[in-house]
Amino acid sequence: MSDSEKYSRLSRLVGRPGLTETVSVDRIVSAFASYGIWALTIGIVVFLWLPLSQIVALSFTENSVLFPLGGVTLQNYVSLFTNESLLAAARQSAFVATVSAGVATLLGVPLGFAIARHSFRGKSLLRGLVIVPLLMPGVIMGISLLILFRVVGLSSGFFTTVLAHSVYGLPFIVLPVVARLAVFNRNLEEGARDLGADGRAVLQDVTLPIISPAIAAGFVFAWLRSFEDFIRVFFVGGTMDALTKEMYGMVVYSQGTEAMDPMATIIVLVISLALAVAINFRDILEYV
Amino acid sequence: MVHRRQFIKAAGATGVTGMAGLSGCMGGGGSTTVSILTWTGYDAVNDQVEEALDGVELEISIADGSANMFSTVNAGGGEQYDIVIPNNEYVPRFIDADLAAPVDMDIMTNFDALYPTFQSAAEGQFSDGEDVYGMPVQFGWYAYGYDSSKLPEDHEHSYDVLFSEEYEGVDLTGAITLYDGYYKSIMATGLALGYTDAFEGDTVSFTEEQLTTIEETLIDFKPNLLGFVHDEETLTQDYQNGNIVASFANRSTHVGIMNDVDSVEFSQPKEEELTWFEGAVVTAGSSNKEAAFQVLNEYISPETGAALSENRNIMNTSQDAMDNIEAEALQIEPGVLDGMIPFKPAEKDDQWIEMFERIKNA
Amino acid sequence: MSSFKKLDDAFGGRSERAKLALMAGPGVGWLLTLILAPAAFLVMVSFAEINSSYDVVWSFSVSNYRELFIGESGLFQTPFVDSFILSLRISAVTTFLTVVLAYPVAYLLTRLSGRRFKILLFAVLVPFFTIFIVRIYSWLSLFGSQGLINNALVAMPFISEPVGAFEYGELAVIISLTHAFFPYMLLTLYSSLEGIDYGVIEASRDLGATRLEIAKDVVVPLSAQGLITGCVFVFVPALGTFITPQFLARGKFLMIAEVLTGRINELYAINYGAAGSLFLIIPTIIAFAIVMRTTSLEAMG
């Protein structure tokens, strides 16, 4: 293939039809950039998926390593579903996450309204304070809450974990609510009022339906953050079971990891399904 | 009632302040719930204990180590937990802080069957001179495991093996692992260097000079290590792949490895084994002391004790219980306990820990 | 005057304030008790001591700070300092890698629509939602002297021994952190790139700017805000990471969170932990200032 043929092929990809005889350097760079971006993106997707897919594969094999390939088995899943303490820990973590995200929602939605709709002294300070739980490294939050609970004499466990996780989850509720209310058309509310709706009816029939997707998305995030947290629960959870603590123990103290791979696989599977549904129904990026 | 109980358990009742009082009277029909803060594996004999002791129900919580157990109980968990089972070197700390209740020796009918070593340990380390405050339940020791297909069984057993590039003609470069913890690794190094004097008395007390030498030894030797590793799975894999010749870790870890890798044996070093035992303490704040002592007595009974050992790969302090055990890897040679060095608190543990951090970052 | 304003007026100033207190009060109380108060205690305990039965002995001594920076090892020779520097380095490299990797993907996402957009979004978001500990764990069997990478390398004709770089250690930690935090960077970059008016790009192209020039002079400056936010959200959590080095450094070195956790877990040295934490808070405060300067809350949703 001659050079000119190469150029014309590239130019066909990037140039306007009919303009094939002169090819600017920029066009070639463009073409390479397009190819490059695709190649890089595919490479990155592979990078993101490689370890996870390897775990999925491992969950069905007899060996704990991929090579040499062992036989296919469901034994790992049997050991997962007979591992009572791991399952109990998973249930416990889900329970903690639900309560914590619930508390965060109850506190966060009105707080979001206050920030978005009212002006008051110290508002900018409050806006800053709201994102602190998001930025504060988990190990600091854990240590500082451990000290607080120790000083006030609250013994570690479920209650303290819910306190920690509910404040950790607060920004995930407040931020989307504030963002949603900021772009929300106030005329809708006023229109409803002009049509005779009272404050409660406006809130119920106009405002809440519009911001509820934001609240729902925030709840899911707060829930996930609580569910996946290790370091905070490590410091303030006391002897309470938690899935992450159980998984950490399995790896670091080696209490047998054969249940790890199927557990991880199930998590990936559930997430994939939920996400596929969400992406098809809504523009979920609005809430990320 | 049953549903309520299950719900509370699922809700993590062990941690909820204010619910602590409930656990004692839950269950109805005169049954008592004994709440235990301990290591993994104890729950395997719950049914057996509950069957043996009429009207007692067990509730097991797992803590991350002895320091954690102490801080939990000290922070007000003493009413929440009836029994705490830390490592022996922590029991004096419980006694000093008035967190332990004196043992009712009349209930401890199995005490006389304990190995004499542990009877005297209870009366020594676990006593304030009058009363005994703790019960040795399970024990094990730290020494090194080795691949007998490379390092013959009849080599001179010594902690020196861990700090040699070559031992009796066997190449050990890069084939050694040490325990990933400051306390155990520093003690092993001290023993290898012959600092046995430091182990006399109530604490392990190396001199400054000795500590410096220990640190230098560990840093110099670090390149020769495969790593600071003590988890069973990694060690098993590395033994299987022939990467390790000797590994310093708990005996129970090695029992697990031996089940998978035939050629692995456990040493009996001439400097003696570093022995730990779990010292069960009934908390001073417990409102079920009598039931709690009955449970302790059950943990060292010939049947339950043996079952506990087989489930945890850890030996029981009761000779009668050990006689009931068939698993070969759990058999111990008579006399192994004679010269044992029991775990004692480190005299300057913040200095030790900083030293180990330095070694790791070196 | 709108009817809404009328309604507000009808309620009057006082009850307006009561309403506000009712709405914001509980949330603010939560933040004060569980974020600010603990932070204050952290400072206080960093000057206190702990006795042998693990009780806090209130005092004003700098011994914890002495322990952090001098200890037994000599000024700035302590493991704490070493680990702090190491953690800063690991976080910086991780942040850099996520930027380099996320930019093109974020850009591509803005140029796609419909089915292709959804598929790519799905592909990058599933690992994001997979819980953190699983993401880190998933690298465990790839690294190590017997890991998948080394086994594959050894199986090749001219490599006979496992390659040190692919054993557990710094590289493993950096790669897994990059993997774990990549989506944070991607999403913040995407949302700022998305806001760029492509008319500007078209215009610069019409004015003869090359693609490289457009990237350098138009796209990067316009997405700077997202870039900074993204960097903060990668750098800060990476700095405080505990599980990652626990799983993938396997005792080869200690990151800062491991040092603090170790002291607290083994010695219950919450005073040392508190003092050490304050030095982790400094980067957090800087990050916070940056975010507050560059981003509005409305944009962070």
Automatic annotation (TrEMBL), chain A:
Domain ABC transmembrane type-1 spans what residues? 90-279
Q: Name one GO biological process term.
A: transmembrane transport
InterPro entries in UniProt: Bact_Polyamine_Transport (IPR051789), MetI-like (IPR000515), MetI-like_sf (IPR035906)
Residue ranges annotated as transmembrane are 32-52, 94-116, 128-152, 158-181, 202-224, 263-281
Instruction: Read off the Pfam families from this record.
Output: BPD_transp_1
Transmembrane among keywords: yes
Instruction: Enumerate the subcellular locations listed in this protein's record, separating them with semicolons.
Output: Cell membrane
Q: How does it sit in the membrane?
A: Multi-pass membrane protein
The UniProt entry's GO CC annotations, sorted and at most eight, read:
plasma membrane
Q: Which UniProt keywords apply?
A: Cell membrane, Membrane, Transmembrane, Transmembrane helix, Transport
Q: Which domain of life is it from?
A: Archaea
Membership in a protein family: Belongs to the binding-protein-dependent transport system permease family. CysTW subfamily.
Spell out the protein name for this chain: Spermidine/putrescine ABC transporter permease ii
Q: Upper taxonomic classification of the species?
A: Archaea, Methanobacteriati, Methanobacteriota, Stenosarchaea group, Halobacteria
TrEMBL record, chain C:
Sorted alphabetically, which InterPro entries does this protein's record hold? MetI-like, MetI-like_sf
**Where is it found, in Gene Ontology cellular component terms?**
plasma membrane
| SUPFAM superfamilies the UniProt entry points to | MetI-like (SSF161098)
**Secreted listed as a keyword:** no
Checking PROSITE patterns in the record gives: ABC_TM1 (PS50928)
The cross-references to CDD domains, in alphabetical order and at most eight, read: TM_PBP2
Question: What biological process terms from GO does the record include?
Answer: transmembrane transport
Domain of life per record: Archaea
Q: Which Gene3D superfamilies match?
A: MetI-like (1.10.3720.10)
Domain ABC transmembrane type-1, residue spans: 84-291
Which subcellular locations apply to this protein?
A: Cell membrane
Topological type in the membrane: Multi-pass membrane protein
Transmembrane portions of the chain: 20-48, 84-107, 119-137, 171-190, 227-248, 269-292
The alphabetical list of record keywords is:
Cell membrane, Membrane, Transmembrane, Transmembrane helix, Transport
Q: Which family does it belong to?
A: Belongs to the binding-protein-dependent transport system permease family. CysTW subfamily.
Name the record gives this protein: Spermidine/putrescine ABC transporter permease
Annotated source species: Halorubrum californiense DSM 19288
**Organism taxonomic ancestry:** Archaea, Methanobacteriati, Methanobacteriota, Stenosarchaea group, Halobacteria
